[in-house]
């Protein structure tokens, strides 16, 4: 099977088949990215992400993986989406504002069980960038170096933000816990718990 890098080179050289293969390979990842953050317009946001990828393809130098490049575009598309919806308040700060602040209700992806609802509610209560960071870490199994490329900040900054985001998520999950289900009480518990729920929702 051709690697992303090989497909990307072929696509940049004009091979439309290679581009289609890349899109098919990463469609689920991009769909998953948006499904935890918006309750409508997901198809449109996915389309805009791939269109943005196509339009900026000539600027992609291959310093990061294609998946990282694609998710960095998805993050920009998401922020533009919410900024357009909040024209009366252009001060949307993804380091402070949460998806919960923006109004959507948790009706997607991992809502099927009480524990999963608690995780989704906990994530949506975080600042947008913290939610994205944790989802890339848990859902996409991305390393700090790759996440740093998505956010265009140093790797050390991501490691610091990741520790803080995990602590915030622990608090959020505890607030959102439903029924008598066991929820994590430490960072180690959180890592195991989130990955187990991710595997169950795949």
Structure description:
The chain has 202 residues and is mostly helical. The protein has one domain: Rna Polymerase Sigma Factor, Chain: A, CATH 1.10.1740.10. Helix content is 66%, strand content 0%. It has helices at 4-12, 16-35, 42-55, 66-85, 99-102, 114-124, 128-138, 144-151, 155-176, 187-201. The radius of gyration is 17 Å and the shape is globular.
What would a concise description of this structure say?
With 202 residues, this protein is mainly alpha-helical. It has ten helices and no strands. The protein has helices at residues 4-12, 16-35, 42-55, 66-85, 99-102, 114-124, 128-138, 144-151, 155-176, 187-201.
- Uncertain spans: 105-112
Main β sheet profile: none
Count of alpha/pi helices? 10
User: What's the number of structural domains?
Assistant: 1
Q: What is the CATH class designation?
A: Mainly Alpha
The CATH architecture can be named as Orthogonal Bundle
Present the secondary structure layout.
Blueprint (H helix, E strand, L loop, with lengths): L3 H9 L3 H20 L6 H14 L10 H20 L13 H4 L11 H11 L3 H11 L5 H8 L3 H22 L10 H15 L1
Helix pairs in contact: 1-2, 2-3, 2-4, 3-4, 4-8, 6-9, 7-9, 8-9
Main features:
202 residues; mainly alpha; Rna Polymerase Sigma Factor, Chain: A; 10 helices
């Amino acid at each position: 099977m051709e690697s992303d890098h090989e497909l990307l080179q072929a696509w940049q050289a004009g091979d439309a088949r290679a581009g289609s293969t890349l899109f098919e390979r990463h469609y689920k990842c991009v769909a998953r990215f948006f499904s935890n953050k918006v309750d409508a317009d997901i198809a449109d946001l996915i389309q805009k992400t791939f269109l943005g990828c196509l339009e900026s393809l000539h600027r992609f130098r291959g310093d990061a993986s294609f998946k990282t490049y694609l998710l960095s575009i998805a993050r920009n598309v998401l922020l533009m989406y919410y900024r357009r919806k909040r024209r009366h308040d252009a001060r949307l700060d993804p380091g402070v504002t949460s998806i919960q602040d923006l109004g959507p209700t948790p009706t997607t992806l991992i809502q099927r069980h009480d524990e999963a609802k608690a995780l989704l509610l906990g994530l949506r209560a975080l600042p947008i960038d913290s939610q994205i960071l944790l989802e890339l870490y848990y859902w996409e199994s991305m390393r700090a170096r790759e996440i740093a490329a998505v956010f265009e900040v140093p790797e050390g900054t991501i490691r610091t933000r990741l520790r803080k985001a995990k602590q915030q998520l622990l608090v959020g999950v505890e607030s959102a816990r439903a029924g008598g289900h066991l929820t994590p009480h430490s960072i180690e518990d959180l890592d195991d718990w989130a990955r187990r729920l991710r595997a169950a929702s795949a």
